[in-house]
Amino acid sequence: MVEDNLSPHVGVRFTVPKLNRIQSKLYPVAFGTDEPVLLCAPTGAGKTNVTLPTVLNEMLKWRNKATGTFAMDSFKIIYIAPMKALVQEMVGNFTSRLSILGIKVGELTGDSQMTKAQIAETQIIVTTLEKWDVVTRKSTDTSYTNLIRLIVIDEIHLLHDDCGPVPESVIARTVCRMEQTGDYVRLVGLSATLPNYEDVATFLRVDTKKGLFYFDAPYQPCDLQQQFIGITEKKAIKWYQVTNTVCYKKVLDYAGKNQTLVFIHSRKETAKTAKYLRDTAMEKETITQFVKPEGATREILTEEANNVKDPNLRDLFSFGFAIHHAGYRERTEC
């Protein structure tokens, strides 16, 4: 049980009933110190919730013990997400959890602007990398950037992505500003597992003995099994055919029982593989194992397929197949 009497309202307490293994290990540093933090953990391991203790830790500094109220105009917290969809999700998340404390959360993206008045009355600003890069690079109004005390960068492993220069610039600019002004800004990086996590920690000015946390496969939220299948074909075309045949057999084993994710090595092959699975299922008359023709699911998928703009996805959707790759991400200007 984690319980902190932070609420400005008498008799109301902010309660989180249980922390998982990863959150429990981070809590003493996230809430009890101002150390920069880099957390590397598998997808679904609860990284995002680690943000809350760091937010509460910062808020506690601005709390009047006598009245229980906060100096809301004295601090700003920035949460940087890689996609606009995630920005909207986090705005709702923070609002539902922190509004009881009087905290206001704002969304700042290319599609959602904030006026100076809105920024002034907002304590947590959720934004995208590209938008925050523009704000910090071009802004002449430092009335609120000088109040920033905590910056959380979600999915910081995108340093290795095509958009890598953007988070790199944002972090370097923040560190440079700290050195020039002497005003400390706590940096918190959230990432999937990284091979060079120590290098990223150094870049974030994280003390590897205090603020670096790395959790690998044993901390997966669900147990994973590995099975290796050897393919001896040398010629590319035959290798591709055998690979697809094996993939179809494996996917069919779970058809109608569980959802299945197939990871492909390129964007182009993503659609090709999905169409192969669909076409093979139709040829072998096993397509009904994926989506029953008389069920409501097929009717819903067929109806929703009409709203899909991508031709490949529209062609597959009604049969219970879908595709996704980085080209579908709702990024801003990257």
From TrEMBL:
Q: Which UniProt keywords apply?
A: ATP-binding, Helicase, Hydrolase, Nucleotide-binding
GO MF terms, alphabetically ordered: ATP binding; DNA helicase activity; hydrolase activity; nucleic acid binding
Q: Is Glycoprotein tagged as a keyword?
A: no
Biological process terms in GO annotation: resolution of meiotic recombination intermediates
Q: Which ranges does the record mark as transmembrane?
A: none
GO cellular-component term (any): nucleus
Matching entries from Pfam families are given as:
DEAD (PF00270)
**Any idea where the Helicase ATP-binding domain is?**
28-212
- UniProt name for this protein: P-loop containing nucleoside triphosphate hydrolase protein
